[in-house]
Specification:
single chain; Globin-like; 2 domains; mainly alpha; globular
Length: 281
Amino acid sequence: MNHGEKSVKKKYFLFITLSLTLLTSSAIAAENSLYQRLGEKRGIAAVVDSFVNLAASDTKVNFTRDGKFKGMDVPYLKGQLTDFISMVTGGPVKYVGKDMKTAHAGMKIKSTEFDALANDLALTLDKFKVPAKEKKELLTLVASTKNTIVEQAISSGPRPLYDRLGGRGNLEVIVDAFVPLAAKDSRVNFFRNGRFKTMDVQLFKVHLVDFLAMATGGPKAYRGANMKAVHSGMGITGAEFDALAEDFSITFDRFKIPLKLKDEFMAIAASTKADVVEVSP
């Protein structure tokens, strides 16, 4: 074999090796389902066990439906819920129970009770230090079942703005669109002259959704500091705050959110201005 043939074979071998590596990497990435990222069935079961215990003790959830299900088989419920979450997150587990609408028919579950349950799940995911990306994906899946589970609307008084905006799922969509818009708006100075350039934007979005959910009358998942403490020392000007509010307004218009709801939201945002803006010397 001459030198030229050896060179060609060597290049061909390198090409085959590289191709196999890329194919293997692609296969691993394709298999990386939410089910796997949550620790598969064992990890999901641990979360479900803690979550159900928390929800059962939460009066806002009304877990036993005013005592109607006081004698329920809780371990069986946990097993069914584990199988359901495993299936919908892309796992190989087969859920053999009833669909969500049939399973909850006649329970007269309220929107506020569903939201309290979702909040308990969010708190449990935080307890297990589930990353923001996986937490958001799972909560979005849970939110997608709301219309099939909730049967009873709030009977007295106006519904919270949180509900009228579509709950956490819609707030996440709004925040996902708003943050990139604000980040590239030079009038906002989002990263404070590079001081927060390495911030975890995904985590910031989660905290912002938590705060907005609380501020609009939804579940109180936000556990951060108040607005004044959070923005202390940032030197935010009135003009920067107004530019940020304008970006929120543009985002609302993009999703064709009714003017009444938009005005209510902007009024809530405006109420934080005194705590966020610092007067420069």
